[in-house]
Design a protein that fits this description.
This protein is mainly alpha-helical. The chain contains 16 helices and five strands. The strands form two sheets. Strands 1-2-5 form a three-stranded antiparallel β-sheet, with no helix packed on it. A hairpin with a 2-residue loop joins strand 1 and strand 2. The longest helix has 30 residues.
Length: 398
């Protein structure tokens, strides 16, 4: 594949930068760039055009840290807000060139046909994240690297289906049918009559069969099941908060909503494939996972809350902060203009609160790393920082 990316800033519209990329390629790569902030967030995969325009803010499914964290926040150890254009190009090239395994490609095809909300670019991006960024634990046996990467991508696909069903489509019936498959309490006849459910079960069965091959599966499967149950509870919790926003409060949202980031699950997959991992490190390591999950959740909340106003999705810590601090009452959401909602929240001290929380979690990770002997936590921290770069570089693509 030959890629020639020449980003050129063409103008500014509503504080939004516009770039044009020219990309040539030898084979199909699929992507759905967001062409306009006001367009419907359609994530169906389509062939990447040789030339396209994308905007620098409010694109769907993008972590807009440049927009979130302005230069006015003078905190020395906060979230990275910018990367150079040349670094963006290198990261994008790496993602475009990433080859999904045949197994993952097969599931992507089924996903696009039956669900198709997320960009195909996303799965390639996840491959780079899980394999090359450094967020995978250093203890993973190299012979399981390919399988671990695939299982993480496929579990993220599985969770994405649940997340979209719960928060975007708000389809409780389908959500519960999907969750029944994870809890092994499903109606076989119902599944056989529903192609979406059949695909989801096939995806779940493949995932389970893979992780059962890992050397620590029998040793750690009870912990993994517990984390899976927490994730399932989070899916139901977020659905309930959208259904009954008057229930929302910040403390519960920070506890239960954070499990939507599936950090415990993803790093739990690493542990299953880590024959030399020392279980004595678990108390400290799981504390680190908790802090990393909170950091990821905060980044996601801050990056998506404006878009979620349009989607009527209030299962976010940003809205929980606003409700808990009497900035907005849930009953007002239907009557207030979008600009007024944004103005109230932006002037509420919300950003400072979450940036302080992000930094506190970051510092906790560094504090606990000294207690862990069998895992390279410096590598893990570096991976978290690389992950932010990957988010910034992929703006408008996923």
């Amino acid at each position: 594949m030959d890629e020639n990316m020449n980003p050129e800033k063409e103008g500014i519209q509503n504080n939004t930068y516009m770039y044009t990329y020219t990309i040539s390629y030898e084979k199909d790569i699929y992507n759905t760039p967001s062409l306009n902030a006001n367009l419907d967030h359609n994530m169906l995969g389509s062939p990447l055009q040789s030339e396209f325009t994308l905007y620098n803010a409010f694109s769907a499914r993008e972590v807009q840290l440049e927009e979130i964290l302005s230069d006015s926040i003078k905190e020395p150890k906060t979230i990275m807000t910018k990367i150079s254009q040349s670094e963006k190009e290198k990261i994008l090239e790496k993602v475009f060139k990433y080859e999904l395994s045949p197994v993952v490609q097969d599931f992507v095809g089924g996903y696009n046909r039956l669900y198709g909300k997320r960009s195909n670019f996303l799965w390639k991006w996840l491959g780079v994240v899980y394999r090359e960024s450094g967020v995978a634990l250093s203890t993973v046996d190299p012979k399981y690297t390919d399988s671990v990467t695939d299982t993480k991508i496929l579990f993220t696909m599985l969770f994405s289906i649940l997340d979209d069903t719960s928060e975007y489509y708000k389809d409780e019936k389908l959500m519960e049918d999907l969750l029944s498959i994870l809890s092994n309490n499903f109606d076989k006849k119902k599944i056989e009559k529903n192609e979406q459910l059949m695909f989801f079960k096939k995806l779940w069965d493949y995932f389970q069969n893979e992780i059962k091959k890992y050397p620590r599966y029998h040793d750690l499967k009870d912990m993994f099941q517990y984390d899976l149950n927490q994730m399932m509870n989070s899916v139901r919790y977020c659905y309930l908060m959208n259904k009954k926003p008057e229930y929302i409060n910040l403390q519960e949202m920070e506890i239960f909503g954070s499990y939507n980031m599936i950090v415990f699950i993803l790093n739990g997959i690493d542990l299953l494939a880590s024959p030399d991992f020392d279980k004595k490190d678990l108390p400290y390591l799981r504390t680190i996972f908790y802090n990393a999950q909170q950091m990821a959740r905060i980044g996601n909340w801050l990056s998506t809350w404006k878009r979620e106003i349009k989607e009527e999705d209030v299962s976010s810590g940003v809205f929980a902060y606003a409700f808990s601090n009497n900035i907005i009452h849930p009953d007002e959401l239907k009557n207030l203009e979008e600009d007024e909602i944004i103005k109230r929240i932006e002037n509420s001290g919300m950003l400072e609160y979450f940036i302080g929380s992000w930094k506190e979690n970051y510092d906790n990770i560094k504090k606990y790393k000294k207690s862990i002997k069998s895992v390279d936590i410096d590598k893990y921290i570096s991976g978290l920082e690389n992950l932010i770069k990957l988010h910034l570089a992929s703006e408008g693509f996923k």
